[in-house]
Amino acid sequence: MAGHSKWKNIQRTKNAQDAKRGKIFTKIAREMIVAVKEGGSGDPSNNARLATVIAKAKAANMPNDNIKRNIEKGLGTSGGDSYESIVYEGYGPSGVAVIVEAMTDNRKRTAADMRHYFDKYGGNMGATGCVSWSFDKKGVIIIDNEDGAVDEDTLINDALEAGADDIESDEGVFEVYTTPELFNDVNNALESASYKFLSAQIEMVPQNYIKLTDPDDIKNMNKMLEMMEDNDDVQNVWHNSEE
Fold first, then answer.
1. Residue 86: beta bridge partners?
2. Closest Cα partner for 10 from 191, 154, 164, 142?
3. What is the Cα gyration radius of the chain?
4. With contact defined as beta carbons under 8 Å apart, do 122 and 93 qualify?
5. Which pLDDT tens digit goes with each residue over 56-82?
6. Which of 56, 66, 85, 114 could form a disulfide with 201 if both were Cys (CB 3.0 to 4.6 A apart)?
7. Cα separation, 54 vs 74, whole angstroms
């Protein structure tokens, strides 16, 4: 597992998110409302999908009042906008594999946007399953250790005891990997142990990475990711470009 590359990708996304926190909160809010409506419960102990979104929201420093308000919206009787989850797959410059997770109230609009981004920056949108086979779905928790205060042995023990599969150290952080099924258990255990999270969510983790070397490819890849991440319908973008 390429931990170094993975954190680089997370760090890039996190920096972009920090600069657009309001937009990120809006996207998480949408995801939370849908999780409540589809799960039929505002109680995360009875709604695993909601629990996962709450973990993501807390790692993004969403205030508890916002979380509560979004859950209440999801429980509301008013219909409001109807969103559906759609996954787009394709290739970026030099064959970089890209997965886009979207939540939209207009399937045609979002599909047209995604196809435009792929085509404009040297890639192409493919059929469902064309690249997802080369990713593994995992729970990924990034724990801050920039000040070196986290004892590695203690963290490893805490994480493995809670059900984690693997823990890696990289560039001032620890990366904790879980199965999707045990993500909430591990997240709750580490949160209770007062570890500081930089990110916590279910991710599509690449099995292999592609190193872009051509300046034009690098520029086009970064621009394509920027356009995708800035789209209101896009929730997550996963790719195997090594930065």
1. 102
2. 142
3. 18
4. yes
5. 999 999 999 999 999 998 888 555 567
6. 56
7. 13
- Give the CATH H-level superfamily of domain 135-206: YebC, transcriptional regulation domain (3.30.70.980)
Q: What is the pTM of this model?
A: 0.85
**52-61: buried (b, 16+ CB within 10 Å) or exposed (e) per residue?**
bbbbbbbbbe
In angstroms, the CA 227 to CA 143 distance is 28
Read off φ and ψ for residue 66, nearest 5 degrees: -65, -45
Q: Can you tell me which residue has the tokens 């690449």?
A: 206
Q: How far apart are alpha carbons 212 and 93 in whole angstroms?
A: 8
Helix/strand/coil for 79: coil
Beta-carbon contacts of 215 under 8 Å, excluding residues fewer than 6 positions away, are: none
> At the topology level of CATH, where does 3-75 sit?
Arc Repressor Mutant, subunit A (1.10.10)
Q: What is the dotted CATH code of the domain comprising 84-133+208-242?
A: 3.30.70.980
Residue written as token pair 């926190």:
21
In degrees, rounded to 5, the angle at the alpha carbon of residue 108 between the alpha carbons of residues 26 and 202 is 45
Helix (H, G, I), strand (E, B) or coil at 97: strand
CA 115/CA 90 separation, integer angstroms: 9
DSSP string over 161-230:
HHT-SEEEEETTEEEEEE-GGGHHHHHHHHHHTTPPEEEEEEEEEESS-EE--SHHHHHHHHHHHHHHHH
Q: Which residue in this structure is represented by tokens 């993004």?
A: 60
How far apart are the C-alpha atoms of 129 and 138, rounded to whole Å? 17
